[in-house]
Amino acid sequence: MNDDRQGKVATGADWIIPIIGAVFATYYLISIKDLDWEAKVSGVFCAVVLFILIGIFAVKTAIGLLRGTHYLEITSLYESHKLVLMRGTLFALTVTSVAVIPWAGFTLSTFGFLFACFLWLQRMSARSAAIIAGALALFGYVLFILILRTSFPQGPFERLVSALTGL
C-alpha cells in the first residue's frame, strides 16, 4: 500500500451497484408506460428513492475525494481469483435466471437461481439448498402472484397450480 493512501478509503469499485441500479431504474421508468397507475406510482417512488440515495452517496464520495480522505481505485473488483470467480458466477446465474423467466416462469426461475446460488456460492448441501430455495420461491409465488397479483411470466408451476386450484 502506498504511504499516501494509508488510512484513506478506496472508492471506485463501490460505484458498480449504484450505476447498475440507476440504469435499471431508468429502464424501468421508460418501460412502465403501459402498466396500471399503481405500478407506475410504485416504480416512480422506488426510482426516486434510489436516485436520492445514489445522489447522497455521490456527494459523500465527492466530499471524501475533496478532503483527501478517499481515493479512486477499482482493483478491489479483482483483488483475488476466488472473488472474481464468485462475482462472475453470480453474474452468470443472474443473467441465466432472467433469460429463463419467460419459459420457466417466476417461481421455477427463482427456485433455480436461489438453489444454484446456495449450492455454488454458499456451499450448502443439496438438501438444505433445495428446502430453503423452495420455501423462498413458494413464498414469492404466494406474495407476488397470489396476493399482489403481479403479472410475472407464467411457467409450468404457475399453470399447474392454476389448473389444480383455479387460482
Question: How many β-strand runs?
Answer: 2
Order of helices and strands: EHHEHHH
Helix count, per DSSP? 5
What's the quaternary structure here? single chain
Mean pLDDT: 86
Q: What level of helicity do the residues show?
A: over 70%
Polypeptide structure, described:
This protein is mainly alpha-helical and 167 residues long. Helix content is 72%, strand content 5%. It is built from five helices and two strands, in the order βααβααα. The chain has helices at 16-31, 37-67, 81-121, 126-147, 156-165; strands at 9-12, 70-73. The chain has a two-stranded parallel sheet. Helix 1 (16-31) packs antiparallel against helix 2 (37-67) and helix 3 (81-121) packs across helix 4 (126-147). The longest helix is centred in the middle third of the chain and has 41 residues, at 81-121. It starts with 8 loop residues before the first strand and ends with a helix. The relative contact order is 0.09. The model has no long low-confidence stretch (mean pLDDT 86).
Task: Describe this structure in a few short sentences.
By secondary structure, this protein is mainly alpha-helical. The protein has five helices and two strands, in the order E-H-H-E-H-H-H.
Record the SSE blueprint.
Blueprint lengths: L8 E4 L3 H16 L5 H31 L2 E4 L7 H41 L4 H22 L8 H10 L2
Parallel strand pairs: 1-2
Helix pairs in contact: 1-2, 3-4
List keywords for this structure.
167 residues, single chain, two-stranded parallel ribbon
